[in-house]
Design goal:
The protein is of the alpha/beta class and 438 residues long. The chain is built from 20 helices and eight strands. Bound molecules: adenosine-5'-diphosphate and magnesium ion.
Length: 438
């Protein structure tokens, strides 16, 4: 223990020199004692839940970095209160409620926040800070691959970080059905109940799947009511708002609407680039040129999983061919994937330009021209957006088509439309109509 105590003392000394005296005194002065070490985790006693939570939320990263300057061993500090220590040492939480059920890397820290998910992020944080109290249930919905599962598990991981004994269960709705059917078939409800009874937090992923089992829905209804009446947190994700769920009993969907719903959208270009930067930092030390990241982000728009896939393919490709992942290499690496995604790419973009011009009652020369009159600006941005998203032209190529405009001008135009599309249904319809015509 002395070794670990010594490590904490040294870490503290370094922290003291990095913080103002006031902050240090408030946060760290009374954080003194190392109580135990287990599997590389050094447990440090904090004087209050407030201090513990604050350190875990705000200073973990910095403390981790400081620690890594002091030792080569893979060690981590964990800040706990007195009651947790006695209870974890005496009775260990059963394995099935252990962290194993959650992916350790699905945390709030690894989630890149932008306009697309800020509401969800802030709400989820609050839920994680006050499980069962802030809102119940929390209902997160959005398209495929936009980070719903990640966000939901971040809540779970956060709660566990603060209290190791929390009984958290993450389950996909179809596994809930499978568990229930198995219990009925084997005429053995015991293992089902062991798994689902007396939980503190229940995370149910892809609730739309529940439409496949009507008996299971009744069972879920019971579980749901039990959790809510005990003020235990439920988090649900779905591919649509609760009111739009098909094949799920009304008394369930109406209960889903009791709490708060948050929706996650597609990240815009800059957020996509940030996500790539984050993934890169997590997975490899290879630096990638900004132009490569932008290229990947431009081509994988509506699914973060695919966006990551694009990055991984570039890295893998450059490794196999033992080359530096330059923009050219990235283009080669992704060519097949991009082609597969963009069946419209072969069409002639000039068709699109004339349809856009026609739709807005102007001619193509003005559409591409320099006039900043408001009647040209919107169609011009739409043209940029369509050439980008449907014809897959690069920003600079589009800039050339538009009378030598700069690539950042085109990028801004595209971003504006992407932004606008989030709320402007009319614009969405207009663009769909244009695309149908070409
Ligand atoms: P969903 O459940 O909505 O289909 P996931 O949570 O499985 O999506 O996310 C797909 C992948 O994209 C995961 O690897 C996840 O970590 C990553 N991801 C999604 N959104 C973000 C984000 N904002 N920041 C970082 N990674 C993200
Ligand atoms: Mg998911």
């Amino acid at each position: 223990m002395d070794f670990y105590q010594e490590l904490w003392n040294k870490t503290k000394d370094i922290l003291a020199s990095n913080f103002s005296e006031e902050t240090f005194n408030e946060m760290f002065v009374d954080v003194k004692k190392v109580v135990k070490e287990e599997n590389g985790v050094i447990f440090v006693l904090t004087p209050s839940t407030y201090i513990k939570t604050k350190i875990n939320n705000v200073y973990t990263k910095m403390i981790g970095e400081t620690l890594s300057t002091l030792t080569n061993q893979k060690l981590k500090f964990k800040f706990v209160c007195e009651d947790e220590i006695t209870s974890t040492t005496i009775t260990k939480a059963p394995v099935k409620f252990n962290k194993n059920n959650l992916k350790g890397n699905y945390t709030f820290e690894s989630l890149v926040v932008g306009e697309s998910n800020r509401l969800g992020y802030i709400t989820s944080m609050k839920v994680a800070e006050q499980p069962g109290i802030f809102v119940n249930p929390l209902y997160i919905f959005g398209g495929v691959g936009l980070g719903k599962t990640h966000m939901m598990q971040a809540i779970g991981n956060f709660i566990l970080e603060n209290d190791l004994n929390t009984r958290i269960l993450y389950v996909q709705a179809n596994d809930f059905i499978a568990d229930y059917i198995k219990a009925i078939q084997n005429q053995n409800m015991q293992s089902f109940e062991d798994k689902y009874e007396n939980l503190d937090v229940l995370l149910v992923d892809d609730i739309q799947m529940l439409s496949m089992g009507s008996k299971s829905q009744q069972e879920f209804f019971k579980l749901f009511n039990d959790m809510i009446s005990r003020q235990k947190q439920i988090v649900i994700t779905s591919d649509c708002p609760a009111s739009k769920l098909n094949g799920i009993m009304d008394r369930l969907t109406s209960r889903f609407q009791m709490g708060v719903s948050v929706d996650i959208h597609q990240p815009d270009l800059s957020q996509r680039v940030n996500i790539l930067k984050r993934k890169l930092a997590e997975n490899s030390n290879k630096p990638l040129d900004e132009s490569v990241l932008t290229f990947i982000a431009e081509n994988f728009i509506d699914n973060v999983r695919e966006l990551e896939g694009g990055l991984n393919r570039v890295l893998w490709y450059s490794e196999v061919y033992n080359t530096t992942p330059t923009l050219e290499v990235a283009k080669d690496a992704l060519e097949v994937l991009i082609k597969a995604k963009k069946p419209k790419m072969n069409h002639n973009y000039e068709d699109a330009l004339s349809v856009i011009a026609n739709t807005y009652g102007i001619n193509v020369v003005d559409l591409l021209g320099k006039s900043r009159s408001s009647k040209y600006v919107l169609p011009r941005h739409i043209a940029m957006y369509i050439l980008k998203t449907s014809y897959n032209l690069t920003f600079s190529r589009i800039g050339n088509i538009l009378n030598g405009r700069d690539h950042t001008t085109v990028m801004n135009g595209c971003n504006r439309i992407e932004e606008e599309l989030k709320t402007n249904v009319q614009l969405k319809m207009a663009i769909e109509t244009i695309l149908k015509k070409v």
